[in-house]
Design a protein that fits this description.
Length: about 110
């Protein structure tokens, strides 16, 4: 296994524990949690600096790309594809918001 591609195992377990593809409501909770972590600059005792903030931004973008790619799988039911499309929209919107926060806090 080369380790490249959209569906590779997660490198950062703390992000993978937050991000979910189960339901749009779960995706909204996860996106909101990651945005709040970026705004506060902390996740519990873990300090969120520019490097971890970029990880969050990349994880949100990756989640949106992964959900969007899953919608093109013909073996999935149409309802599942619609659910994944809405999850992709949620994570894409959160990635835009996270990018604004990243630019405001860390790009001076």
């Amino acid at each position: 296994m080369s380790g490249k591609g959209l569906f590779r195992p997660s490198r950062h377990r703390w992000l993978a524990d937050i991000i979910t593809f189960e339901s749009p409501a779960g995706a909204e909770r996860a996106a909101k949690k990651l945005i709040n972590i970026m705004k506060r600059g902390r996740k519990g005792r873990l300090r969120i600096g520019p490097r971890r903030a970029k990880m969050i931004l990349d994880a949100l973008t990756h989640a949106a790309n992964r959900a969007k790619a899953s919608t093109k799988n013909p073996r999935l039911k149409p309802t599942t594809r619609r659910r994944l499309a809405s999850i992709a929209r949620i994570y894409r919107q959160a990635a835009k918001e996270a990018e604004e926060i990243y630019r405001r806090k860390y790009m001076r």
